[in-house]
Design a protein that fits this description.
By secondary structure, this protein is an alpha/beta fold. It has 5 helices and 8 strands.
Amino acid sequence: MDWPRTRFGQRLLAEEQPRLDELVRRLHGDFLVWAGPVPCATQGLKRCMVRKSLYLSHPGEAVNFDMACFVARLCALPLPSKSVDNLVLHHSLEREEDPRQALREVGRVIAPGGRLILCGFNRFSAWGLRQLYSRIRPDLFSGWRFVNPLRLFDWLALLGFELDEPPAYLGFGAPLNLGGQAAGKPSAWLGRALPPLGAVLVLSAIKQAHGLRTPPSQPLPHRKLATA
């Protein structure tokens, strides 16, 4: 069973969906690519002003979906450089063997001024402990590489991305099928406090246009005109 089909997975998806929809609603431009294992999470695209959208399916996944799809890995996108206005990474970066290389490829295809929305599992959370457990015994998250937020922010800055608002941390429940009261009280309290320990990190960043800054204008040196 995949994690989105579990009870705790459904609970997490329901919590992050409103935030994801809010960010997606602001997108505009000609071309958008959505990458992620949960096709139903794309419902926010109905309210955005993007003209064309493509769904990026992970190799080996069968997607029965109305949206136009193509199959590829993030680390080798079959797209021209600077051809995408918006790219949404919904729990897709952590499935790559080399998340840094995948993010570099994402930066290559996004045009200057384009927007990146990323929703990924936070390594510094209870879900991160579950992922560590998956390295020892087979689990839903075996082979996944959860995001280290500190490294992620550094990678984005090096690739020329700038956060346009503070990142959000969501999902403070345990990644287990616990009873409603046992799971609800701690997660409700942490949800109000909003420490950077939530199960998922959600951010929005804009790719800056490098090389457009011009040095301050200086007066030309005074020259004497030649005599007639």
